[in-house]
């Protein structure tokens, strides 16, 4: 199954969080299934936060950042009745704002589940609700305003 990011054009594949062409990036892969999106990521020891055994909060925000914009793009395609990677003009979103709430420490070394749902899609603005869980427990929640990117002439 192709990830949402697999459909980003090559010129947008350099994102640190999810670009397949960035050798130093996280290579996050997000999928849409029904009314939610999901991605999985297992942080290595180098992503340690301030206290041992737990994940650095900036990394967690990065995971929500990329998953949120991918979620916005996937739901915008769906709203227009289009398939991802249909060869038409790409629909791409950037992060306008991202609120992150750290509910409990996130353990290092186990697979994290990042999920997204669409709260609203109006014009160029998509509001996405995000969660990041470890072992079935929600550690981080997020709320993103993603804005559809329009190239300026
Ligand atoms: C950042 C662009 C760099 C070039 C990127 C090129 C292409 C990108 C295309 C595709 C990306 C592909 C893959 C993405 C992969 C990974 C992405 C990871 C996520 C990121 O890492 S992404 C980087 C961080 N991200 C930024 O670097 C954004 C910098 N920023 C801007 O580029 C502008 O700021 C922009 C475009 C956001 C809006 O600018 P704009 O001029 O196009 O439109 P405008 O200001 O009119 O906003 C329209 C409506 O959104 C409301 N609105 C806007 N911002 C708001 C906020 N913060 N809070 C509340 N409401 C807000 C307004 O109030 C208005 O609402 P209304 O229509 O109701 O009045």
From TrEMBL:
Keyword Nucleotide-binding recorded: no
Entry keyword annotation includes Lipid metabolism: yes
Membrane-spanning residues: none
InterPro entries in alphabetical order: 2-oxoA_DH_lipoyl-BS, HotDog_dom_sf, THEM4/THEM5_acyl-CoA_thioest, Thioestr_dom
All copies of domain Thioesterase, residue ranges: 53-137
EC number: 3.1.2.2
Reactions listed under catalytic activity: tetradecanoyl-CoA + H2O = tetradecanoate + CoA + H(+); (5Z,8Z,11Z,14Z)-eicosatetraenoyl-CoA + H2O = (5Z,8Z,11Z,14Z)-eicosatetraenoate + CoA + H(+); hexadecanoyl-CoA + H2O = hexadecanoate + CoA + H(+); decanoyl-CoA + H2O = decanoate + CoA + H(+)
Signal peptide: none
Membrane topology: Peripheral membrane protein
GO cellular component, one term: membrane
A biological-process GO annotation: fatty acid metabolic process
Cofactor: (R)-lipoate
Compartments where located: Cell projection, Ruffle membrane; Cytoplasm; Membrane
Family indicated by similarity: Belongs to the THEM4/THEM5 thioesterase family.
Protein name per the record: Acyl-coenzyme A thioesterase THEM4
Organism: Pseudorhodoferax soli
């Amino acid at each position: 199954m192709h990830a949402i990011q697999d459909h980003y054009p090559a010129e947008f594949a350099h994102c640190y969080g999810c670009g397949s062409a960035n050798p130093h990036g996280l290579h996050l892969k997000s999928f849409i299934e029904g009314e939610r999106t999901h991605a999985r990521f297992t942080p290595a020891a180098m992503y340690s936060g301030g206290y041992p055994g737990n994940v650095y909060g900036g990394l967690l925000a990065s995971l929500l950042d990329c998953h949120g914009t991918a979620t916005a793009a996937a739901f915008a395609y769906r709203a227009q009745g289009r398939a991802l990677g249909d060869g038409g003009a790409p629909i791409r979103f950037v992060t306008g704002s991202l609120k992150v709430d750290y509910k409990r420490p996130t353990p290092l070394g186990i697979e994290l589940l990042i999920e997204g749902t669409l709260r609203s899609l109006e014009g160029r603005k998509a509001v996405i609700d995000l969660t990041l869980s470890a072992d079935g427990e929600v550690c981080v929640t997020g709320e993103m305003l993603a804005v559809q990117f329009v190239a300026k002439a």
